[in-house]
Amino acid sequence: MRIHNFAAGPAALPLPVLERAREELVDYRGTGTSVLEMSHRSPAYDEIHQGAIAAVRRLMGVPEGWSVLLLHGGASLQFSMVPMNLMHPRRRADYVLTGSWAKKAAVEARREGEVRIAASTEADGFRRVPRGDELDVDPEADYLHLTTNNTIFGTQMRELPQAGGVPLVADMSSDVLSWPVPVERLGLLYAGAQKNLGPAGVTLVIVRDDLLERAPQGLATMLQYRTHAASDSLYNTPPTFAVYLMGLCLAWVEEQGGVAAMEAASRRKADTLYAAIDGSGFYRGTAEPASRSRMNVTFRLVDEALEKTFLAAAAEARPTRMVQLEGHRSVGGVRASLYNAVPQQAVDDLVAFLADFERRHG
Ligand code: PMP
Questions:
Q1: What secondary structure, in 3-state letters, does the chain show?
Q2: Closest by CA position to 147, among listed 137, 139, 157
Q3: Cβ neighbours of 54 (radius 10 Å)
Q4: What is the value of pTM for the model shown?
Q5: Nearest alpha carbon, ligand 1 atom 15
Q6: What's the pLDDT tens digit per position in 3-44?
Q7: Looking at the chain, which terminus has fewer C-beta neighbours within 10 angstroms, N or C?
Q8: Is 209 a catalytic residue?
Q9: Ligand 1 center to residue 158 CA distance, Å?
Q10: Could you tell me the distance, in angstroms and rounded to a whole number, from the CA of residue 224 to the centre of ligand 1?
Q11: 305: CB partners within 8 A, 6+ apart
């Protein structure tokens, strides 16, 4: 029996996707082989691969002049690839610090050049994202890096800042495909797939083609975006099964009505849960209301002992157990991740559990 999985990533996948993958696992559509066993140069895999790229383009409205890449190494490798490829010609970039992942990205960029902090909410414990007018952008920066959704702190920036002619680079690992991001306003966006796109093992990068040419020729071949752009992300063996599953997830999103439907569903899920938290006086949301994430809902109980009791009780809840509600180990507390594949029913059951737990322990 399936349980309610509120994991921050790797996270819940749509049940029809898992069922389809099971059906096709041993004999993929009459080929007599599994996708796991197929050459990445075979026609059957090529269709899977190009199909996933085409689905990203359709779903996200990627314009001509932007390349869609499927890479290895997770979002963490992008922390390095972005400055290696784009921190040119001035070797200066601006970073917006809104959480632990943004800070990690800035640490890697410092290995390549000068990093200026365009805004930071660290003094506020990362409980909010900066307002547009708080950003101090260097017009000479090679790019401006931001994290649209802060997975650990439960905050989100759904409006892209104005940065003049400075290319915007966005880490969208935990909210890609959950709201209609204007790709044409971004120089580059990246996302590990294991939250909103599919399984772990593949990383989506969308990059404006003129930026591909900034990388120095001396950069390692595998680290240059243009290597992957020039070969349709088939320069070396791609993570074939992860790409296949991502393709199934993208098809599922299209069947549901695309990004607009994902946005409506995620708004409803998040509103349901935040209303329960705000209405209780027993649970306390950690993010400032104006900065709240629709993807990762973070909250606390009165003390850590009660949080432990809460998490243990949730894991034993009936009729459906609720798991992976622990906050990130660096901050503690409770975190419910409500990515695209998490159904409204899971949130409704969680809200009922919140009320029941409060009755017993409040
Ligand atoms: N950025 C954000 C916003 C994340 O949430 C994560 C992972 N939780 C990462 C980067 C790192 O991703 P990966 O594990 O794919 O390297």
A1: CCCEECCCCCCCCCHHHHHHHHHHCCCHHHCCCCHHHCCCCCHHHHHHHHHHHHHHHHHHCCCCCEEEEEECCHHHHHHHHHHHHHCCCCCEEEEEECCHHHHHHHHHHHCCCEEEEEEECHHHCCCCCCCHHHCCCCCCCCCEEEECEECCCCEECCCCCCCCCCCEEEECCCCCCCCCCCHHHCCEEEEECCCCCCCCCCEEEEEEHHHHHHCCCCCCHHHCHHHHHHCCCCCCCCCHHHHHHHHHHHHHHHHHCHHHHHHHHHHHHHHHHHHHHHCCCCCEECCCHHHECCCEEEEECCCHHHHHHHHHHHHCCCCCCEECCECCCCCCCEEEECCCCCCHHHHHHHHHHHHHHHHHHC
A2: 157
A3: 14
A4: 0.98
A5: 74
A6: 999 999 999 999 999 999 999 999 999 999 999 999 999 999
A7: N
A8: no
A9: 18
A10: 20
A11: none
For a mutational test of ligand 1's pocket, the pick from 77, 103, 153, 174, i.e. the residue with the most ligand atoms closer than 8 A to its C-beta, is: 174
Tokens of 332: 């503690």
Tokens of 162: 């104005």
pLDDT in tens, 308-328: 999 999 999 999 999 999 999
